[in-house]
Amino acid sequence: RRMEALEVHGATAAAQHFWLRSFCDVYLEAIKPSLRRPDPDPSTLQTLLSCAELGLRLLAPLSPFLAEEL
Asked: What Gene Ontology molecular-function terms does this entry list (predicted)?
């Protein structure tokens, strides 16, 4: 919504909040034990990849060089 309203600062804050607070702080910390197993759950890996892709797609218009590097 913030991108459609051309609120760049708000869109950047929303993307940063998703990436840092929701994805890294919550989801990655929750699945660390699962990822340490020799056979991690495929649905966990699929969710991880889907969230990472979403986060990078949100970040790309705001920080293209950073998103490309990640």
From this structure: ATP binding; valine-tRNA ligase activity
Collapse the DSSP code of 61 into the 3-class scheme (helix H, G, I; strand E, B; otherwise coil) and give the result: coil
CA distance 22 to 51: 10
> Is residue 1, in this structure, part of any structural domain at all?
no
Backbone phi, psi, residue 19, to 5°: -65, -50
Task: Give residue-wise pLDDT tens across range 13-64.
Answer: 888 888 888 888 888 888 999 889 999 889 999 998 998 898 888 888 878 8
Q: Hey, what are 54's tokens?
A: 């979403």
| Structural domain count of the chain | 1
Residue 65 domain flag: yes
Which tokens is 12 given?
A: 């950047």
How many Cβ atoms from other residues are within 10 Å of residue 59's Cβ? 19
